[in-house]
User: Fold Serine/arginine repetitive matrix protein 2 from Tessaracoccus aquimaris.
Amino acid sequence: MTATEEVRAKRDAKLDELHEKLTGAVETLVSGRDWARALAFAARFRSRSFNNALLIWVQHEAAFEAGRVPGPVPSYVAGYRQWQQLGQQVQKGQPGYMIFAPVTGRFASSNPGDPSSWRRLGPREKHKVNEVVRTKMVGARPAYVWDVTQTEGDPIPEPLAPKLLDGEAPQGLWDGLAMQVEALGFEVLRVPDDGRIGGADGLTDYVARQVSVRTDVTEVNQIATLAHELAHVLMHDPKDEDARQHRGVREVEAESVALMVGAAHGLDTSGYTIPYVAGWASSVKDAEPVEVVKATGERVRRTALGILDQLDTFQVADGTPPGLARDVPTAEPKALHVPPPSEHRPAARVPVVAGRGL
Assistant:
């Protein structure tokens, strides 16, 4: 075996180990409570992919149980040299948390509209004058990150957290969510009780282009409901054939987005109810439940990020240490509209309404 082949074999073994860790982490997400905990954690580490957030979560938990870190939940994570850039040094003997890092390539085309015209450039190859160059992810490699408590150096500021009274909603959050709903062509209605919307907390009517939210509940509940309905508008347009899936998946996705939006604002998400994960994951045709959960988690994360990026509200830190700029290419572009997977079974008829608590 050549030196290159040996390096490749070691890398592939590490990737296999990573996939096993990730599969084990996903397999634990079989109840609404575990799924909610994972999403709340991902909201605090939303600069990372859903898969990498899960990997950090389970490895930090193991480090805490082994007495290597002082707390069960990390605050900031970064790579070895990234910590050095911030004046921190990883403590001797502290193992890092293995995650997936993107492998990127440069591609050039003189006709960007033609997918077949793109060619990959070599390491030092220059593009032609009339060509457009783009960088995209072509694979993954194992990489390591460490929590700030595994480093030594000048104190890192504690992540700020919103301070809210019980039942109080963050300032400007309702207005910011409502503006996004209205920008998508839906009217936001505040109704006095659930009797106006069939006993639900909220309702999205795709025909009338209306989103209704009951107001005889706490501000936090109203915010969560509006975020839930916004997720329906973004992800479950009944005119989209891919969105014609059974209701269980739609409701899990919408409630999960609402949970992440709330968690990113420091809201207590313990009261959220999410249907049993194993049930809807196993009901997706021609797909393994583990893969369904992973795909759903990333789709939920991307939708929540699209919402959060448009809000002018105070949000909790995203897991990146202060002063460290992360510009990591991803396999998929960030977008507001994130359609559900086409392999979901079509519903018996196109749904014309969707609602929280129906």
About this structure: DSSP finds nine helices and ten strands in the chain. Residues 329-351 have pLDDT under 50 and may be disordered. The CA atoms of residues 124 and 147 lie 35 Å apart. The longest helix spans residues 3-27.
